[in-house]
Amino acid sequence: MRRLSLILNGIVAPLLLSTLWPVAAQAQIKPGEYINGAGYGVLSVMPDKGGTLKFELNVVGGNFHTCNLEGVIRNNEARMEESADEKLPCIVTFKPQKDGIAVDSKHGRACSSYCGMRAAFEGTYTMPPAGCAPSAVRQTRNRFKASYDKKQYAEARALLTPIVEKCFGTLNIYAQGWVSNDLALTQYRTGDNAACRNTLKPWLELAQTPDTEIEGGYPPSDAAEMLRLAQATRANLKICGAPVVIKVIDAKPKL
Length: 255
Description:
Layout: H1 2-27, E1 32-36, E2 41-47, E3 53-60, E4 66-73, E5 77-79, E6 91-97, E7 100-105, E8 123-126, H2 134-149, H3 153-166, H4 173-189, H5 193-200, H6 204-208, H7 211-217, H8 220-239
Antiparallel strand pairs: 1-2, 2-3, 3-4, 5-6, 6-7, 7-8
């Protein structure tokens, strides 16, 4: 009887493990907000009905082209409704990793219809530090604006400073630039011109670059945003006591 019991246990145990494996694999994906490429891609994973997970994936690529996908994750995959390939479905895969989730497409460019020409969603998405998730940063910036509009500058400065000190690496370059300018102007309002200049120091080179060079150095939509950022930085540096001298570009002699 003892030998029979061991044999039965040996048969039953693998069947149970095989049955439970998809659930265990699914559980490895933790709900939350993940970022890719310093905030250019945001993956949101949320609990759904029946123990499954739903996701939203938003990416900003060159010239502000975007990827936008959403669906339900089952067994670490999401089968999308549309496909750029008539013979193959668009299947997005989610592979849990130690520090995040590797996102890929199963059939090459079958998922390309969800993206603009200069955007792609494939890559590794990591969970940002506490308080630095995109939704948390957005809420902090909204509270900052409310305090600033009420002329509560010390409070506004205290709200925004941790975003620059702690979350900068999770923001794309445009968000970094605007947060820096917001903080610098707030530092000026609190009477700290030196801090204002120091906050804008990493953006001095952009501010010194002629508009024509900025316009010619980026795709159109990116150029327009960088130009706005350069102009705001110039104005704020001047307010903080550091007027910007635009670089002179030597014209090439005509042959």
